[in-house]
Amino acid sequence: MASSFSTPTKLLFLSLFLITIMVSKGQQNTMVFFLQDVATGPNATVTPVTGINGKVWSYNTFGTIFVIDDPVSLTTSLNSTPIGRVQGLLIASSLDGTNVNVVVSIVFNNFEYSGSTLEIQGISRQGENYREVSVVSGTGRFRFARGFAAFETISYDEATKHSIIRLSINLVQP
Description:
The chain is mostly beta strands. The protein is about 10% helix and about 50% strand. The protein has one helix and nine strands, in the order αβββββββββ. An eight-stranded antiparallel β-barrel has the order 1-3-4-5-6-7-8-9. Strand 3 (about 65-75) and strand 4 form a beta hairpin. The longest helix has 19 residues, at about 5-25. The two termini are about 40 Å apart.
C-alpha cells in the first residue's frame, strides 16, 4: 500500500523532526551560588603568589598572579551549607590594571553535583560590579557544558577584605 503523503510533505515533516531534535538537544540551565572571598588574614581564600619584582602585588598591578580557593554556597550566609569550591588563578593581565584573567574550576562536593566540575575562563573587568566570563567545559554532570558565568559583587568589607559574590551560571548542555 502506497503512502498517502507526498514527497514535499514527507520532507517537511522530516525537517521539522530534525529541527525539534536539534533544539531539544541543548538544555538551558541557570544556577545561582555565592562565593565567600577573603583576601586577608589566616583564613584568606585568595592570595597573590607572584608578580613583577619591585612592584606591589595587587589586583591592579600588571603581572600579579593570585590563587583562589573560595567556598561556594547556596546563600550569602557564612554559615550556609557549602556545595563546593572555586579553585584556580586570577591574573592581572592588562597594563592599566583594569582587567583580570580568570581561569577557575568550580569543584562540587555536595548535593546532586558532587564530583562534577565546571571550567570557567575569561576577562573580568575590575571596575564593574557585574562581570561575565565563559563556561568552557565541565566534568561529570556538566560534561561538555557551554555557557557563561556572571560574577556580581553583593557586598565588600574594606576592613576585612571580605567579599560576597553572586555567581550566576547559565549553561547550554548537549
